[in-house]
Design a protein that fits this description.
Blueprint (H helix, E strand, L loop, with lengths): L8 E6 L2 E7 L1 H16 L6 E7 L3 E4 L27 E4 L12 E4 L12 E7 L1 H8 L3 E3 L5 E4 L4 E8 L1
Antiparallel strand pairs: 1-2, 1-10, 2-7, 3-4, 3-10, 4-6, 5-6, 5-7, 8-9
Length: 163
Amino acid sequence: MAHELDGVTATLETSEGSMTLEFDADKASGHVENFVKLAEKGFYDGTVFHRVISGFMIQGGCPDGNGMGGPGYTIKAEFNDTPHVKGVLSMARSSDPNSAGSQFFICHGEASFLDNQYTAFGKLQDGEATLDKIANAPVKAGGGGEKSSPVNAVKITKVTINR
């Protein structure tokens, strides 16, 4: 199955510009397949980056916009040796390693403490300026008190899968 996903990319059009993500199906085919399936259904269109921490990551993919929602199912972890460095695409999850669903994050810095604990499944191919702009957006305290909630919503207007 992984070979069908070779060379597939995703373009995220956001309110701050666009980013192109290149997938790594060899290391996490289930996660790539899941993201592609959700994107092609329009799942991510109109959602926001609800958690933004400069120097760490930007997180999106929650249908509720608050970090609590998902697609109604979870997928099995595919931990691998990809280091969590700036530009790496990885899946968010709860404390259960097999709880990822739709929420993803793009690293905005080195985060080695996530290595082998979160499933990295791609990387930024183009759009580093957009990543920087989103990551450096003004933030306020969110629901849990963490100062990571963008003051002005950063929308994902559309995700296009390029085959």
